[in-house]
Amino acid sequence: MICRNARRLPLFHTSDSTMKRLALVLALLALSSAPAWAQNGVLAKIKKTGTITMGYVDNAAPFSFVDGSGQPQGYSVELCRRIATGIRGQLGLANLETKWVALTVQNRLAAVRDGKVDIECGTVTWTLSRQKDVDFSLITFVDGASILTRIDGNLNRLADFNGKRIAVISGTTTEKVLKAALDKRGIKANVVLIRQRDEGLQKLDKGDVDGFASDRMALIGITLKSRTKTTSFKLLDEDFSVEPYALPLPRGDHDYRLAVNRVLAGLYRTGEIEKIYDQWLGPFGRPSLLLSAAFYMQGLAE
Hints:
By secondary structure, the protein is α/β, with parallel strands linked by helices. 39% of the residues lie in helices and 22% in strands. α5 links the parallel β7 and β8.
């Protein structure tokens, strides 16, 4: 509101002390209006160091694995590379170094929570309990848990595993949902805990277990990469869970999560995700209707 009786003040004749106060106020306003990442958080660290630290788990082909030269590769790894490029552009950096850190299924979430890595590029299922420790990106893939078994074992359904042995990686969502599915259906199977996928396939090949439970796509990937030539494997016709994958991020860093999701949404919106899918997952078939819908719905506009 304009007061007509107010005394007019000179526009330019201001004392030195007033100018100093004005400069201080403007400086404080500039600081308060600066984006949060300019002051703290992962984006500030990335901009200061010129490095983004990314974690991965080997033996999770085709999502994350190490090639012959020792470099991380796979569908999730490629998404993280795109994220690194996108964040470099968002921060206006001429260069951004990517530091890769090898993790295990057991310590991958703790590495994100404790700040050892800025993001984990693998096959982590987004759950509410995990969100107590870490945040998650947009969904990157939708899979289902199944059981790999020997083709000569005459095991075709989950109910056929009554009295049988099923290997599963400890600390995964598959362990939890497998036990719940067995309990719900009254199936008395012996659940054998292992630490990594290679171990599960080896036990199955030797006959130490009758089945190996994990995410369907991961089971396909490890079978195709396996050097085992003496045994033929098959997957059950049924899944016993739905596994929405997302990339774990440090909890509470909203600006960093937005930067990550901005890149992913762009890939989904432009259809670039189809090229990435075809490169790493194309041999396994076209995206499911559920996955295609997830890409479509998450192609958020700027």
